[in-house]
Specification:
globular, seven-stranded antiparallel beta sheet, alpha+beta, five-stranded antiparallel beta sheet, single chain
Length: about 325
């Protein structure tokens, strides 16, 4: 464990502004708002559980915003999902128009996408990343479960907290190979806990059901199939089109809208990805399931407020 940032090292009388500048330099392009005029206190410590980085944040009340344009401008990659375990105080997370209220022992999942983090009370939390591909392969797109609270009183959440607390305590007595295996088990426990939380979402949320999860996973795996539609999706998961539509409609969603939204989000991610920087926009659009560049550009601008070319260009600055 080592302290990587602390307001103790800031000489300025007002420590919040320089604290935010340090966070921007080392981590994310955030904007900060201090809630109280009293002295701001914060520290950030780093641990490792095997190869998995773990950070512990302690701070007095404040708010952080991750704006979309800054994420694009700073080329922030979202290959990872962030898991935050609250150890004291109350925090709020707003992402994808969903509010998560996090108290001691609660767990919240968030993406490195536009969001607001509000630390309402002095307290601390642990945070660590999980590969997006690992979690989305099992649970579907992260937008389903980002900013959902995994309440401490539920057995699955309690198990995750106890498991990681004990692993932190005993890892020095384990071999590197054993710690790596144990941390992998911990990640599986978190994924199982999220699935348990989704399954309890009633009556609105049915994303946790096996059928809908299979449907969303099929969409992710076949995002480049230009013929993919609601009928083909229903056949792939083995139920009638009418029944599949009912499952999505109970979420106030439309199957076709969901497919187009995932195509647009995938295209946006690829426009930011340097591994796709050599691919022309027309070819990138086709690879995400669009049949023409004109159709892609029109839908993209409606969804993101700028053309694909502008979106890619802004990512360079």
């Amino acid at each position: 464990m080592r302290t990587v940032l602390s307001t103790d090292e800031i000489q300025s009388r007002n420590k919040f502004k320089p604290w935010c500048e340090l966070l921007r330099e080392r981590y994310f392009p955030l904007e900060g708002i201090q809630y109280e005029e009293a002295s701001f206190i914060a520290s950030l410590k780093e641990y490792h559980i095997g190869n998995m980085p773990l950070r512990k944040l302690y701070q007095t009340p404040a708010q952080y915003n991750l704006p979309s344009k800054e994420l694009i401008r700073n080329k922030v990659r979202d290959d990872f999902i962030i898991i935050r375990l609250r150890k004291g105080g109350v925090a709020h997370t707003v992402q994808h128009d969903r509010l998560a209220i996090q108290k001691t022992g609660d767990i919240v999942v968030s993406e490195l996408k536009p969001m607001t983090l509000s630390y309402k009370e002095t307290g601390s939390e642990y945070a660590f990343p999980i590969e997006r591909s690992k979690i989305e392969k099992l649970l579907g797109p992260a937008k389903i479960f980002s900013a959902l609270t995994l309440n401490a009183e539920h057995g699955s959440t309690s198990l995750v907290n106890k498991y990681f607390a004990e692993l932190l305590r005993v890892q020095s007595r384990l071999s590197d190979e054993a710690v790596s295996r144990m941390s992998s088990i911990g990640v599986d426990l978190i994924i199982a806990s999220i699935a348990d939380r989704l399954a309890r979402e009633t009556p609105k949320s049915l994303q946790g059901t096996v059928v809908v999860q299979r449907a969303k996973s099929f969409i992710e795996d076949n995002i480049g199939d230009t013929t993919l539609d609601a009928t083909k999706l229903a056949a792939a998961v083995g139920i009638s089109l009418r029944r599949l539509q009912e499952l999505f409609q109970k979420q106030e969603r439309n199957i076709s809208e969901w497919i187009w939204e995932r195509r647009l989000d995938t295209a946006a991610a690829r426009l930011l990805d340097k591994n796709y920087s050599h691919i022309q926009i027309g070819n990138l659009a086709y690879g995400c399931g669009f049949t023409s560049q004109q159709h892609f550009s029109r839908r993209f601008k409606q969804h993101f407020g700028m053309t694909p070319r502008e979106y890619r260009y802004n990512a360079k600055f």
